Amino acid sequence: MATLTRVAFISASSPSGSIGHSRNKCRQVATSIPFLDSLPEFSSHAFHARYSPSSLTSLPRTRYRRSCVSKTEAFKVLSMAKSTVLVTGAGGRTGQIVYKKLKERSEQYAARGLVRTEESKQKIGGADDLFIGDIRDSNSIIPAIQGIDALIILTSAVPKMKPDFDPAKGGRPEFYFEEGAYPEQVDWTGQKNQIDAAMVAGVKQIVLVGSMGGTNLNHPLNSLGNGNILVWKRKAEQYLADSGIPYTIIRAGGLQDKEGGIRELLVGQDDELLQTETRTIARADVAEVCIQALQFEEAKFKAFDLASKPEGTGTPTKDFKALFSQITTRF
User: Which residues are catalytic?
Assistant: First the structure.
C-alpha cells in the first residue's frame, strides 16, 4: 500500500482518544497503522456507520511523524475497510456469478448469499456465508441482512413451460408460474420485503437488477403466464427509489451465458436500447456492473438500461466510473 502522506492525528495515549485539538496546525500522526496495510483501494462507504471517534482509541500504538491533517481524510482511509455484501438470488445463474466474484475479491468484500433451499445452497458450495430464506417471508431473511453494508437483489419470478408443448407441431409454447411464485409475490412483495429489511438494518446501498421493457405494458414478457412480470418489477424499482436508501437500478437487456469483460457496455434509459440492435448482455457483465456500482458515488441514485455491443466491436469497458457518469436518470 502506498505511504500515507496526510492522515488524521490519532493518539493511542490520549485519554479521550479524540482526533487532535492542539493549537498546533501540524500533529504527530500515525504513519504505519498495521491494519491499513491490507485495506483495498476502492470507493468508501460512509465512515460514521462503522467507526466513531471513540472507536479510534482501539487502534494499536505505532510509529509517528508530524503532518498537517484533516478529519475527512482520515475517514476516507479508514472507511476502506472490508464491506459485507449480501447477494439474494445467489442460486440463480446471474446471482451465482456475483457471489463468486465477491468471494474472489475477499480483500475488499465479505460475501454473503441468500438462497431458498438447502439444495441450492449445496449447489454453490454450501459455505457458512450462504443463508437459506424465502423473500416472501420477511422474517426468514432478517438473519442474512443483519450486519451487511450493501445488498444486491437478483431475485426474480421464473416462468415454467407447460409440459404438453410439442415443437414438432409448431406454434408457441405456453408458460405458467407455480402457485405462490407469481411475479406479484416474488418481484413485488419479495423485493419490498428485502428493501424494508435493509432499511431497518441500516444498509448503505442497494443494487437491484431488473429488466428492460418496463415502459411497455404490452411487452411480451408481461404475457408469460399472465404474470405481468415487468409491471411488478417496475413497482419494486419505484419503491426502492422512494426509500431514501442509496440505490442503483440496473435494467438488463436479454441475458446471455457468455464470457464477460470483452465487450463495450452501453447504458440507456426508457428502453431506448430496445429500438437498436444492441439489446443483449452477458450475465457476467451484469454481475461485474453490480459490484462496480458499490465502488463509485457516480452509481448511486441512478437507474439505467444496460446492454453491450457485439464481441469484437467497440472497446471493452474498463472504466466503470466513466460508464456511471454517463447516467443522469434517477428512475
Answer: 211
